[in-house]
Amino acid sequence: MTIDLLYSDIEEALRASVADLLADRSGPTRVLATIESDQPCDLALWDTLGGQLGVAALLVPEKFGGVGGSAREAAVVAEELGRAVAPVPFLGSAVLATTALVACAAADPLAALASGDLTAALAVPLAMMPGDPFPDTVRATAGRLTGHVRTVADAAVAGLLVVPAIGPDGPALYSVSSDGVTVTPVTALDRTRGIADVTLAGAPGTLLAGPDLAPTALDEALTTGAGVLASEQLGVAQWCLDTTVRHVKERYQFGRAVGSFQALKHRLADVWLELVTARAAARYAADALAGASDVAVAVSVAQAYCSAVAVHAAEEAVQLHGGIGMTWEHPAHLFLKRAKSSEIALGTPGRHRARLAGLVDLPGPVA
Amino acid sequence: MTTTETLDAADVRLRVAALLAEHDPAAMDRLDFLRARFDAGLAWVHFPVGLGGLDAPRTLQAVADAELDRVGAPTNEPRRIGIGLGMAAPTILRFGTTEQKARFLRPLWTGEEVWCQLFSEPGAGSDLAAAATRAVPDGDDWILNGQKVWTSGAHSARWAILLARTDPDLPKHAGLSYFVCDMTAPGVDVRPLRQITGEAEFNEVFLTDVRIPDAHRLGAVGQGWQVAQTTLMNERVAIGGQAAPRESGMLGVVAGTWRTHPEQRTHELHDRLLKLWVDAEATRMAGERLRQQLAVGSPGPEGSAMKLAFARLSQALSGLEVELLGEAGLRYDDWTMRRPDLVDFTAREAGYRYLRAKGNSIEGGTSEILRNIIAERVLGLPSEPRVDKDIPWKDLPR
Q: How far apart are CA B246 and CA A3, in angstroms?
């Protein structure tokens, strides 16, 4: 098994096209304005990204009308979206829901997702992580679903929900049109990634997978989501480092650029080192997902590591910007909020470490 | 040479097979086999033809190593001759004359001649360019006087790479030259320097009227600093850039202790161990990524990053291990003063590892200097004030 931790030319080209679009259409001022508007998700941007650039079709196999890409490409897109804290439903729709639907070979919704006509969400709490017990807050009886799911990513803009539920035979996945459910947006710490509470009261659902497939399909979605999220966190950290380095070169106090002070230089060198390491961990997770090898360890290492790096880089960005870093006007807070929320999303670093303890045979104290 | 530019893995395998057909490692002297391997261009394939290489991509070395390893061929014990392989050789290749390359590289690679490094001095540590060891011309020779320190393996070395001041009237960086010093020459006095572990892996080297022929100068007179940069860049890569399996090195030792001592486990130690496990695994991937980048380029400042990460990890892990041992952590295996040929973390106990790891953030560039390098060369932040850079070396305060 050969590991490839570099970026291919095709991946770099994909990155460039996403980065160009985001530079043009989703600068920090625009993001701030969007999240304070009536529609905090940038649907026009998502239309271009998902439909025209095709990122919504990346993880959809060609036989379902998609691009048939791998987590390696999705991770590159996530990096750029993180670098811009773009308020689009890439993670919820194009990664989490799409991966679950692919695992269930759900041809119709996948074709609609790939074309950009449909946006979907995976109806699980965003804090859920791979390996967690199958959710039991929704029950399915005779094709009708009843129950409650809190803090679902990108649900507010989804036309279709992929809902884990306990059916007559046990764990199952259903597709449910959002028309029949109540989706209540949550006032979120990170307003650049919409979360909503979902209430189902006898909503009609179409069975996607029964007990034989539903748990693995859900786990695959969460695992892919967690692996791709590591790259998004890398992008968040990259913006924080780049912007802070630029600031300390331009900001003069005591007659010199504050970036000439060793106390600041060393802190930024440490962030850079963390980024170098996070990039390798995130790339390894993406490569492992693409090659279906060593996936569980690679993803949990990437999540445990990259979550903390994004938070550290964002906290340093706020601190090293001084007073301006504390203002609403400066975008640093958007990245801090995204970083801190993402630390919880798809498993906290501590929970991923606890999972690793089992995966790599480092058991805790004997009771 | 144009024929070798397109060498691939299959060509390397053919050359290994040809070497083995002529030289059976099981039936011949180890050194003779290593010499034959060098002459076949399979020592370091990215080196030029005639100097142990094939002008081939660096990545193909792994192919040759694996093929030879498979048949149990002897190695040159690279860890024992790390300074020669990692520091002296790339510098000789880049700056050496045809005669110097022909004279030094083969016995360096086979390990017949061990190399050490005479750079640091009591007054020139992080500020290496302030080196005070004087080299004064005398006919076709130079006469050297001074004191070097932190010299690993000086007691078993045949040759040293050495930085000396040839012109004290110039600013510090401009007045240095770079030499190859014969460690058996009269006036070279090697004294063990005992360290906090109890052993003396390092030495002080006193140079008193040591005669070095001008033919053993590497690079031009006054070019010593630039030559030394090549050496040091390769040192950081050599220390930090090796591909390693999961849980190798210090992590493997500590994880092993954890698994075999369930009675010592606490939740607090478990949390720290898992954090370090993740850090080590992510850092291993960063090393692997750097290796993949190097395969298509040359060493850059990322090598500094790996050394910084390695130092932090090995210190945290070795500290954790002593705590994990509990009462047994109060013991120390042996304070006897020895002069080991190589550092082997695994051959000693936890207390030794903890103490020896303290050197990881000092040797080969302190972690503080590495952070300066990263901040300035990678991030482009303003340089540290250099009040001494335009002043003649002889006028600097010291």
A: 13
pTM, full prediction: 0.91
Q: Tell me the per-residue pLDDT of B310-346, one tens digit each, with 9 for 90 and over.
A: 999 999 999 999 999 999 999 999 999 988 877 778 8
| Coil, helix or strand at residue A164 | strand
Taking CB atoms and an 8 Å limit, are B381 and A283 in contact across chains? no
Q: Which residues pair with B176 in a beta bridge?
A: B165
Residue of B258, B282, B288 with shortest CB distance to A362: B258
ipTM score of complex: 0.96
For residues A85 and A136, the answer to whether their CB atoms sit within 8 Å is: no
With an 8 Å Cβ cutoff, are B379 and A3 in contact?
no
Side chain identity at residue B55, one-letter code: D
Q: Which residues, in sequence order, are CB contacts of A367 under 8 Å at separation 6+?
A: none
Which tens digits make up the pLDDT trace of A109-134? 999 999 999 999 999 999 999 999 99
* CB pair distance less than 8 Å for A365 and B374: no
User: Which chain B residues have any C-beta within 8 angstroms of a chain A C-beta?
Assistant: 247, 255, 258-259, 262-263, 265-267, 270-271, 273-275, 277-279, 281-283, 285-289, 292-293, 302, 305, 308-309, 368, 370-372, 374-376, 378-384
Catalytic residue set of B = 235
Q: Which residue has the tokens 């590289």?
A: B105
| Minimal-distance CA residue of chain B relative to A243 | B379
Residue B226's identity, in one-letter code, is Q
Instruction: Provide the token pair at A187.
Output: 């006032």
DSSP assignment of A22-44 equals HHHH--HHHHHHHHTSS--S-HH
**How far is it, in rounded angstroms, from Cα B40 to Cα B63?**
14
Residue of B nearest to A366 (CA): B262
CA-CA distances (angstroms) from residue A286 to A5, A351, B296? 9, 20, 21
**Could you identify the residue written with the tokens 């007179």?**
B221
